[in-house]
Amino acid sequence: MESSSGLRVLSCVLIDDEPLALDVLASYCAQLPFLAVQAQFHDAAAALAFIRTHPVDVVFLDIQMPGLNGLHLAQLLPAPAPRIIFTTAYDQYAVRSYELNATDYLLKPVAFERFVQAVSKVYGGAERAEPALPALPVEPPPEAILVRHDGQLRRVAFSEIQYIEGRKEYLLLHTTQGRLLTLQSFRRAEEVLPPARFVRIHRSYLIALAHVEYLERGRVRVAGQLLPIGDTYREVLLERLRGYQQL
């Protein structure tokens, strides 16, 4: 498919049983002029029926869904099969996804930059006669993080997060609206949270600079709680605080 300007446009289908996750994917696609969303589905079986009669270039596919899951759906796609980009909150399916020749495997919450990287792999697979990947629009950073809590994907605004506490493989988000426990790593959180507003102060704590009340010897008070400052994080914290005050 080509646009009026001659730009190659990739047709795609979005499949996810969680409405919020589907909305995020749709908003990301809308920001890229070379993606055209043909349909969105909460049900994998309905999506398969559509793809069998409406060939597309790319399928953005969740894995854990009721009934027909994403891995099974990927094996049922008609030939020539579209490129598959899995989008899931679980990393244990990564090996299986590549056995199915998936183009990429995105872990939720998916950052826009990571989404673009995945799409670029599909676009880069076009014939050499096709134009190179066009310059991407400069978009404002996201203002929220998506976390899974009590079986739901929840949207938590950055402004609501006071600090994040590590509890083994889980993160406990302390927010102005309450606490949320989610299965996620600090690394994943740090990829999404803007560094100008959040900083790691300890191997078990990451804080929002906006909620810092004061510092004392080896500790920082955030939202009424005194949290320890690790020796290796002290200088970074002070530097970020100075930069935050100048904003």
UniProtKB/TrEMBL annotation:
Residues 145-217 form the HTH LytTR-type domain. Transmembrane segments: none annotated. Keywords: Phosphoprotein. SUPFAM superfamilies: CheY-like. InterPro entries: CheY-like_superfamily (IPR011006), LytR-like (IPR046947), LytTR_DNA-bd_dom (IPR007492), Sig_transdc_resp-reg_receiver (IPR001789). The modification 4-aspartylphosphate is found at residue 62. Pfam families: LytTR, Response_reg. The keyword Chaperone does not apply. Residues 11-123 form the Response regulatory domain. This is Response regulator transcription factor.
